[in-house]
């Protein structure tokens, strides 16, 4: 059986229990070496064959996955959660075409890890109830209508992947789209890795403060990184709901 597993953001104990158990019994692990913490391979047995996919093509990855006898356990290990910028769909479609079955084991995305290390909540009452996950166009184009400038018009919480190398342009686009230059923003480099770094600022100050970071970082933007918000209704003593009566 072939398993696509989310490795989590970096820390070896932030993979799911299911993912860890599958790594322990894997015969072959193909991991995305540019981003997956190699320390995660310490869950594998001595007999397990490991391959870094960084220098492989889609065709080569699929060829290696399907060369194993079907009763063996093959793991394709992706960073964070495979559903976000994971390039997994093309692998799954190829396996479908070739008649191989597979399962996906979700992971903790860097999106979640970055909020955790900042002690932040993306969806604060009175600030924003929407999180936009996007990126600047790079080698992969971004469809028309999803430009950073147009997404910025919502003023929502934003998490930008794969874009820290273009931080100056990114912040300029966010301001042109309508965020005030004083909007709080942060760069979280390698969340949960031993060399994690957090840089806080505003859309105006961040490009300079985080100029030394060129990869493996998220850029977070929005009022959720500030100090103003409203209390939740759910835990408000004056508010009744299905499980609790309001106090008089
Ligand atoms: N599937 C992954 C994202 C893969 S795209 C996930 O769910 O997290 C690779 C991008 O993810 C990087 O360029 C960076 O923007 C972000 N990223 C991955 N791991 C990270 C980490 N530990 N800390 C901060 N950003 C990270």
Write a short abstract of this structure.
This protein is an alpha/beta fold. It has helices spanning 17-24, 58-67, 89-98, 110-118, 148-152, 167-177, 206-209, and strands spanning 2-6, 28-31, 49-52, 74-78, 102-105, 131-135, 157-161, 184-189, 197-202, 217-221. The chain is built from 7 helices and 10 strands.
Could you explain how this protein is built, in words?
The longest helix is centred in the last third of the chain and has 11 residues. The strands form two sheets. This protein has a five-stranded parallel beta sheet, with helices on both faces. Strands 6-7-10-8-9 form a five-stranded mixed beta sheet. With 248 residues, it is α/β, with parallel strands linked by helices. It has seven helices and ten strands. The model has no long low-confidence stretch (mean pLDDT 96). It has two domains: 104 residues, Tetrapyrrole methylase, N-terminal domain (Cobalt-precorrin-4 Transmethylase, domain 1); 116 residues, Methyltransferase, Cobalt-precorrin-4 Transmethylase, Domain 2 (2-Layer Sandwich), CATH 3.30.950.10.
What brief labels describe this structure?
about 250 residues, alpha/beta, 2 domains, 5-stranded mixed beta sheet, binds S-adenosyl-L-homocysteine
Topology overview:
Layout: E1 2-6, H1 17-24, E2 28-31, E3 49-52, H2 58-67, E4 74-78, H3 89-98, E5 102-105, H4 110-118, E6 131-135, H5 148-152, E7 157-161, H6 167-177, E8 184-189, E9 197-202, H7 206-209, E10 217-221
Parallel strand pairs: 1-4, 1-5, 2-3, 2-4, 6-7
Antiparallel strand pairs: 7-10, 8-9, 8-10
The protein binds S-adenosyl-L-homocysteine.
Residues 9-10, 35, 78-81, 84-86, 109-110, 113-114, 161-162, 188, 190-193, 215-218 line the site of S-adenosyl-L-homocysteine.
């Amino acid at each position: 059986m072939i398993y696509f597993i989310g490795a989590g953001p970096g820390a070896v104990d932030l993979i799911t229990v299911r993912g860890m158990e599958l790594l322990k019994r894997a015969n072959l692990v193909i991991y995305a070496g540019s981003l997956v913490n190699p320390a995660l391979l310490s869950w594998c047995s001595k007999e397990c064959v490991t391959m870094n996919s960084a220098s492989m093509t889609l065709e080569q990855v699929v060829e290696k996955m399907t060369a194993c006898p079907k009763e063996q356990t093959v793991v394709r290990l992706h960073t964070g959660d495979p559903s976000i910028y994971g390039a997994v769909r093309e692998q799954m479609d190829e396996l479908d075409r070739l008649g191989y079955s597979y399962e996906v084991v979700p992971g903790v995305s860097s999106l979640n890890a970055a909020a955790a290390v900042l002690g932040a909540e993306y969806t604060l009452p009175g600030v924003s109830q929407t999180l936009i996950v996007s990126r600047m166009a790079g080698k992969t184009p971004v469809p028309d209508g999803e430009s950073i400038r147009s997404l910025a018009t919502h003023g929502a919480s934003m998490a930008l992947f794969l874009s820290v190398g273009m931080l100056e342009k990114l912040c300029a686009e966010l301001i042109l789209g309508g965020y005030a230059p004083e909007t709080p923003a942060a760069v979280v480099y390698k969340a949960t890795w031993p060399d994690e770094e957090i840089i806080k600022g505003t859309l105006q100050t961040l490009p300079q403060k985080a100029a030394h970071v060129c990869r493996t970082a998220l850029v977070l933007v929005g009022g959720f990184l500030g100090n103003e918000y409203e209390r939740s209704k759910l835990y408000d003593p004056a508010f009744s709901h299905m499980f609790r009566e309001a106090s008089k």
